[in-house]
Amino acid sequence: KIHATAGDAPKRPPRRAASTGRALRPEPLAESIDALAARLHAAVFAPCGMGLDAVAGLLRSARGGVARAGDELTTRGAPVAWLVLVYDAQEETVAVVGENGETVAELSAPCWLGEMTFLRPAAETEPGAASATCVARSDVSYVAWDMAALRDALRADAALADDFHRALRRDATRKLQTANATTTRARAPKLAPIAPTAADGTAPNSPKP
Fold first, then answer.
1. Is the pTM here over 0.85, yes or no?
2. CB neighbours of 3 closer than 8 A, spacing ≥ 6?
């Protein structure tokens, strides 16, 4: 049997992500577009209904590279010019850093960065600013699209836009579910075992009055 005791579960000391201060610098894709399209199609876009040829077409206008450990994939308060898809990395390899420098969340690949800025209507007329700094904990491979150019391309193909936006919303939903689960675990009360009792209410083997 278990019962709840007063107070929240003990909090772990906040983890901090060491940042080098280097910002993202996407370069022309080094990997074969067909090979990369096959990987991203299976991992990200197929569940959203996008075909392999459409993924390859999107990659022709993309850039990318490898961010090294400590690189900042987004920087809090800085304009968000790139929509980034981290696709090859170790688990929980992107740290989301809060205002005080502590890690408030950890993301695993594949994951999008900048998707909320890209999806908001105001982004069509004014650049958005990153709400958090995201730091690579290890080397991560990524592709990145210039937001303005990508928005123009999707505007010309409604079906492609629907599939692409579905992929972004799917990732945003997954992040929200992970955040809610983490919050729930943090707020859960400690559970302590109740000592077994005999039929008369005394602990087993205790001396009788």
1. no
2. 191, 192, 194
